[in-house]
Amino acid sequence: MPSTEVVMANKLYVTNLPPDATEDAVRLHFAACGGVSDVQLVPERDGSKPQGLAYVTMTSATYASTAVGRLDGSNFGGNVLRVSDRPIPADKAPPPNVRVVQQFRERANMTYELECSGTAVTFRLFPIEGDRWRFEARTTDAANPVVVTGAGRTRSEALDAVVREWNVRAASSGVRPLDGTGLTRAMAGIKAV
Where in the numbering of this chain does the RRM domain appear (predicted)? Predict the structure, then answer.
């Protein structure tokens, strides 16, 4: 009976995984906090694809506690993870952490001001030659500004490129990562992507 309690104390509940997450990638992400004994991606009810949930079992309660402290709110594949030692109900979506504050047209581009997890970010969308698109994202923080650009064949591809580049920079600076899924939902809601 005590071994079951230890295993339960080591079990973590993870939500907001990107659709292309693999067990190996999740294991590698959590291994930065200590030993990982098991990773289970939870499939949709029809079993066709993962639904963004996983159970990760660490090899000790210390490693589990470290993982919750370090990885809750961390970037993984463009998404901001939720990690807890208690079940996170599947029907409870994380609160929206991206909201569109304002949008307007500037000559040949559109500008969107968003609130992203407490960080004010301005996005500019430009058409470029050859039916391609370029997104530019910048913080409005004058003391520590971040500017990132990305291009793609579609507006969605360009936005994905910006999120990836932003989150790479966020890992090495004090800037918060962007929630790629939340950002895409917000921008799709106003027909920007």
Answer: 10-84
